[in-house]
Amino acid sequence: MMTVLGILLGVLVVVVITALTGYFVAQEFSFMAVDRSRLKARAEAGDATAKRVLSVTGRTSFMLSGAQLGITVTGLLVGYVAEPLIGAGVGDLLGDAGVPVAVGVAIGAIVALLVSTVVQMVFGELFPKNLAIARPEPVARRLALSTNIYLRIFGPIITLFDASSNLLLKLLRIEPVHDVEHSATPRDLEHIVAESAESGELPAELSQLLDRVLDFPDRNAEHAMVPRPKVDTVHADLPLPEVRTRMATGHTRYPVLDNASDDIIGVVHLGDILDWSADGDATARTARDLARSAVIVPTTLPLPQVLDRIVAAGDEMAVVIDEYGGVAGIVTAEDIAEELVGEIDDEHDPDAPQPVEPIDGGWLILGDTHLDEVSRAIGHELREGYYETLSGLVIAAAGTLPAVGDTVELPVEQDPGDFAEADVPEAPRLIATVVEVVNRVPGRVRVSVAEPATATADPEEDPR
Q1: CA quadruple 379, 380, 385, 389: dihedral positive or negative?
Q2: In Å, how far are 21, 91, 251, 262 from 109, measured between CA atoms?
Q3: Longest Cα pair distance anywhere in the chain, in angstroms?
Q4: Does 53 fall in a domain?
Q5: How far apart are CA 373 and CA 356, in angstroms?
Q6: Where are the transmembrane segments (predicted)?
Q7: Number of domains in the chain
């Protein structure tokens, strides 16, 4: 009877020690997985428990050292008590049943090892780990007070072990890190948005908006500008009455270009013309006389800086200059806003066709649609290059100016993470067919998905 009670006592001791192991494992994973930004917001609102959790997460390395100390000590204790209490008891029971002593001791040791290992792995390691990962904030909140007390009591021992490990790192010329970086790079955020959209956690419209916001700082004036062939301009010597007549059916401001050199003179505004007409005779005046100084930006200037210059000048438009000093186009505040929220229709384009229109078997896309917008609409990342639009990509892939009916295969950019997998997914094949040619370049293109290619092209190769 005493032998059985000894075995039961051993099992109870193992369970208690295993519970302590689970406590430290839950510490380790819950404080690492908890959302710090949410806790900071709650702490600022006066949540005392959130403040205690943040006091632990603010010293990640120290907390992990404390958790590892607890896990190591409790693991050793299980092995220390399991064999004499459980193993020896099982050996005694087998000896009473006539089993040789040596065999009984061996079997008892194996049983003790199996029992302690199973209990430790399932209830001391896996269960608390999975619980902490699945519910990090509730677990962290419940453990915050006891963890702070534990770290305060055993702080000197933990500090000693921490200092020893840091010394070893420095001997290897590695600088110790005392906190885990929880910030995310723009590329990390792009992956988070994409995965959230695929899982249905983010609506498609919101994911596209976030994607545009993340891309915005990397876009330049050339990306958002209205290209020179589509810009309405007036010559410097055009009389003001004719400029006013043109404004009645067009825009309220026009770039003013020199008649001979086509250089930018400035920008003429409707308000200035109306003021001049009210104050004096405008018939003898030309656009040159009322042209304001234009906001001039290079094609390579990032859009946030373009917006800053437009706002600083109190204007709504900038003239974009290329590397040769010529007018490459114009960019307006509306063009910049469209980089964030997508196409904005106004009174000047009431019947504008949709840039990307779904059709049977693919999409019908305007040639001047930017590649990033095409990629978002069709769900495949087109490879970017020295071109900005789908038309430019089709011309680059064809190697010439394509005619109506010409077909090319569009290069698709694969996620670099795919190449780390054992089975690299095959890249989809996108086939582009020119439906309409406008000004010698593709005006409308039909894009369809064909069967995946058997081989994957080099992701860095640029189509020519």
Answers
A1: negative
A2: 22, 8, 91, 94
A3: 126
A4: yes
A5: 9
A6: 6-26, 61-82, 102-128, 149-169
A7: 4
